[in-house]
Amino acid sequence: MNSNILVQAKDLVKTFHGREVISHCDMCVKKGTIYGFLGENGAGKTTVLKMLMGLLTPTSGKIEIGGGDLRESYPSILKKIGSIIETPIFYEHLTATENLALHLSYMQLPKRNIEESLQLVGLHQAGQQPVSEFSLGMKQRLGIARSIVHCPTLLLLDEPINGLDPMGIRQMRELFLTLVKEKNMTIIISSHILSEIEQMADTIGVITNGRIKKEVTISEVKAKTPTGLEDYFFNLMKAGEQYV
Ligand SMILES: Nc1ncnc2c1ncn2[C@@H]1O[C@H](COP(=O)(O)OP(=O)(O)OP(=O)(O)O)[C@@H](O)[C@H]1O
């Protein structure tokens, strides 16, 4: 595998109860980039992200992360992946700090970076509060803190800005850009908020009916559709392959 590539999925298939929801899906994510993962409701984004995280086993196909086969490198590779997939669940009676400490101990890692991670997501003053007292947005921020506390190289973020206020959305966008620039992380982020993806992503992957329809750099998107990503996405959905 090309050394510039961190994640490569080849010919992925996932079947649930005989129904193929991911169909021969190929995906390629370069190191040190943000990959905006787009698709309509039910297109297959969460299912692919769960397979990249090892939470679901593909029916067939191959996933390589950092040049190694995900299945063969499991579970040690988990230490290099951070994720927020669907609604994050916490021990509600424990504090934010205790939840992050528990996460690190599950991963058999030293209790480091807890304060820094809470600071990065704007929860530094809430570290000693039980999670049961957190708002939806605070839980989402804590989920992001948990995804980065072990300093992963790959972040899988499934709609991570759900529930955040406008300030929070901007702070998280800036955080994700900083993590890539300063901590060398690679991020795959799914979101329906195309304006956010447009401001962050280097590459866009569009999935339709379980298959990547288009992988394109953001500069190609802008060249093709000067009015921006939203129009590019809608034109692609409407016109299909004729548009690309
Ligand atoms: N555990 C499961 N059992 C059966 N079908 C499933 C399961 N998980 C997902 N699916 C189906 O797989 C398809 C893809 O779902 P997925 O959640 O991956 O889509 P998505 O692109 O993340 O959608 P959304 O944008 O609505 O979150 C859907 O048709 C869904 O019903």
Automatic annotation (TrEMBL):
Pfam families in the record: ABC_tran
Name assigned to this protein: ATP-binding cassette domain-containing protein
Annotated SMART domains: AAA (SM00382)
InterPro entries reported for this sequence: AAA+_ATPase, ABC_transporter-like_ATP-bd, ABC_transporter-like_CS, P-loop_NTPase
Keywords attached to this entry: ATP-binding, Nucleotide-binding, Transport
Nucleotide-binding found in the keyword field: yes
GO molecular-function term, one example from the UniProt record: ATP binding
Similarity annotation: Belongs to the ABC transporter superfamily.
Record carries keyword Signal: no
SUPFAM superfamilies linked: P-loop containing nucleoside triphosphate hydrolases
Domain ABC transporter: 7-234
